[in-house]
User: Fold this.
Amino acid sequence: MTMISRVVRVRACYVPPLALKPGRAHFSSSVPARAAGSSAKDRLSGPLPPYGPVGVARALQASPSTPAKPTIFEHEFSLADRVALVSGANRGIGLEMALAIAEAGARAVYCLDLPKAPGEEFAKVKAYVARMEGKKGEGRLEYMSGDVTDQEAMWKLGEEIGKREGRMDVCVAAAGVLKGDTPCLDYPAKQFKEVLAVNVNGVLFTAQAAGRQMVKFDNGGSIILIASISGSGANQGHPWVSYNTSKSAVLQMARSMACELAPQRIRVNTISPGYINTSMTHQFLQKRPELLERWSSNNPMGRIGRPDELRGATVWLSSDASSFCTGSDILVSGGHHAW
Assistant:
């Protein structure tokens, strides 16, 4: 579970940045623009990234006089010059992930959410990024308002980003909603449709908005869909049939899209957080403090997670460091799934 009673939608209302640089850097996500497995060599190891071999292969090819420099953060984990779209990013885990992508070197991270104007939390993070020292890229956070359940509007927003930036490399579909406890046999049809409209349709439309631009610019890319431990098992003591159903759908959506988009060098994966202490979770626990003990006891680490504990998985999946990972689900749950 990652969000409590929150609907994040996106309408076609763009808040322009103060300044946009027109430069268009050519960048390959991880391999040259050609069909996957187009030669025997490609089938053995895949084409090398633009910066050449890394790791042991780099060490073995280097001559004794070649300077030895680390590449793991300079190249594999770097998101230098990349452009990202993150839904549900006005606050919570969406904003946390957007910040991580910016810190990793992205040129611009477009943050989508329902409010017409960003909130105070977003404004503070945007200012923090603007004055951050040591970034490997421009690292702009740009706010966009819109409705993730509106497919046509989402596609237009993706096109707008593509026109402005000349590329699209990373997508994180983090918008979601969780309704209150409702017994499955009495679950109202209208409420069930509302949850699936945001958590399933909205995730697909967000992925489409970014993925269509990735195909257009032919740089490959990474799409990350935010699922949940609730997609793999029910939450003990919580009748959340609509939420659990929607997150299971997201897991299968990612696997299906991963298989379809691999030839275009677009990877699709999911992150399944456990109970995470977002600001909305905190408000929920204030009303029902007894749940903290229950949720904490559901994993071997004996606590719920922090939003920042999703940063590493986000950057890894966004970057070349995960170039052979697609159709996978990354569980960040404190071991919840192990019990």
